[in-house]
Amino acid sequence: MRRGETGLVLFARLLSLLIASLLIAVGGVTAQTSDLTADHVRLVEGVGDFGQPTLTAVGEIVNAGAEAYANLFITAQAFDASGTQVAEGYGFLVNQCNVGVPLDFALQPDHRQPFTAPLELFEADASIETIEVIVEGEAVEPLPPPAAINGITRLSDEEIAAVEWDASGEFFRFGVGCPSELFTEWTWGRVNLPDLEVMPEAHPAAEYVTPELAERLGLNESDFARSMLRFAPNGDRLIFQDEINDVITAAPDGRFARLLFNDQHNRTLQGVHWLPEERFLAYYYGAYGDPVGFFTADVEARRISPDLRNNPFSEIVPGASVDGRRVVLAGTFDDERGYFLYVTNNDFFELLFNAEPPGNNFPAPIPLVEAESDLVNRVYVALETDDGAELVCFNRDTGDLIPQTPLPLDLAQEERADWWIAPDEQSLVLAATGAHGGLWWIDLTALPGCG
Questions:
Q1: Residue 261 in this model has a pLDDT that exceeds 70
Q2: Within 13 Å, how many C-alpha atoms sit on residue 36's CB side?
Q3: What is the pLDDT of residues 119-173, one digit of tens each?
Q4: Rounded to an integer, what distance in angstroms lies between the CA atom of residue 327 and that of residue 207?
Q5: Could you give the C-alpha distances from 23 to 16, 76, 98, 237, in angstroms and in order?
Q6: Does the pLDDT of residue 393 top 70, yes or no?
Q7: CA–CA separation, 340 vs 336, rounded Å?
Q8: What is the H or E stretch that residue 279 is in?
Q9: CA 268, chain centre distance (Å)
Q10: CB neighbours of 79 closer than 8 A, spacing ≥ 6?
Q11: 425-443 pLDDT tens trace
């Protein structure tokens, strides 16, 4: 699937250093070095750190050959209508969040990766008509195919920002992109069950995201781009953060806005994990290694947990039960280090098991509630071991921590992974961003089980 432009070009993200950007279509794209080609090349205007105007060529480098390519050297040359070169720049590969890929990254056969190339104009008033991209690289042995893991099916090797299960459990959507972007900047796809057929699909709420919606929500262009605007899957309301990080819910057209929390002005909203019936867990942290704050609520602006300052902070992204009341987090509390169960409406706090928590870029725990007792009796957790990431299940009735399967995760600190459980609780969808990003379906019925 290719990451394309959306209709909301006024709010497209350029680079992490840009405040706002405007997409400009250009024609006549060419590329060099046989197997390596440039695709979706376009010119982006922006504003630099010191307020100066900037021009950048962005797009994707595609490897159509049988070899992998390392140490890519990308040259972008811009020409005016007469064919005279008027600008030049040197580029590099980036991930979906415009962060440079690792130094040892090699573009594998039949793969594509975004690039960015800042341009320097030869004349201040030059007009760019076409861009040529020259790509050179060092041919290296491609990586072997990923080893098969029992119960896990790889569906994509792209960077997945989010997954949304349909309430029927018959399919789920996934968005390719950077988690901090508007969901309309992501390229969406759909996976049908049980055959795991992958197909492109527009997000059903994308039609609501317009400049008029931004105006009704009281957001300018840059604030709208960072608003983390999300629509409740299978629901009829949205949530967003405003210019001072107040969390507000509204109808799809922006009417009937309701304030939810207004004490997060010095916090960075990193994500929203949707639960059934329009509930969600919102989580906050500054960077890798920082403590994670959270709250749970629903899109009708009803609070389930206290505000994030009155919830315990976690070393991992916490995971909530389907009702949003029970939360599993990790860290050191009362001289015990491990995973804890916190009940948000009565301050119940219990050590589940001792373990070293991974970073806050790992998938959040998934607590499951036994219907008859209405108690959390199982918790799926991703742990980091000497052999890599592993899925384990904690059986609260017996106190056993039961290994399930290795996980195909290889995360740098700025990358992240998350997962979402199916409505019938029989499967998981695992997703990751970064150079080793991807999308995997995990059949829990093929694993050892949780006792």
A1: yes
A2: 28
A3: 999 988 888 999 999 999 999 999 998 888 999 999 999 999 999 999 999 999 9
A4: 34
A5: 16, 17, 16, 29
A6: yes
A7: 10
A8: strand 279-284
A9: 15
A10: 28, 85, 86, 128, 129, 130, 131, 132
A11: 999 999 999 988 999 999 9
Query: CB under 8 Å to 428, separation ≥6 — which residues?
Result: 366, 380, 419, 420, 421, 422, 441, 442, 444
Whole-number Å distance between alpha carbons of 374 and 383? 26
Tokens representing 353 are 């098991």
Which of 396, 391, 432 lies closest to 414 in space, CA to CA? 432
**Mean pLDDT of the region 55-79:** 95
Residue with the two structure tokens 């590329």: 31
H or E, element range at 211: helix 211-216
Q: In what order do the strands lie in the sheet with 247-250?
A: 230-231, 238-241, 247-250, 258-261
Identify the sign of the CA torsion 250, 422, 411, 108.
Answer: negative
pLDDT-based confidence at 33, cuts 50/70/90? low
**204, 205, 206, 211: CA torsion to nearest 10:** 160
As given in the structure block, the two tokens for residue 80 are: 């005016």
Cβ atoms of 188 and 200 closer than 8 Å: yes
- Quote the CA–CA distance of 101 and 434 in Å, as a whole number: 8
The residue behind tokens 């573009």 is 107
What are the tokens at 213?
Answer: 């919606």
Name residue, tokens 């070899």.
67
What separation in angstroms does the CA of 81 have from each of 43, 59, 78, 122, 196? 15, 21, 10, 15, 48
Q: Which residues pair with 66 in a beta bridge?
A: none
Nearest CA among 190, 165, 166 for reference residue 176: 190
- State which H helix or E strand residue 214 sits in: helix 211-216
401-428 per-position pLDDT tens digit? 999 999 999 998 989 999 999 999 999 9
Distance CA 84, CA 340 (A): 65
Q: How far apart are CA 214 and CA 135, in angstroms?
A: 39
| Residue 95: band (very low, low, confident or very high) from pLDDT cuts 50, 70, 90 | very high
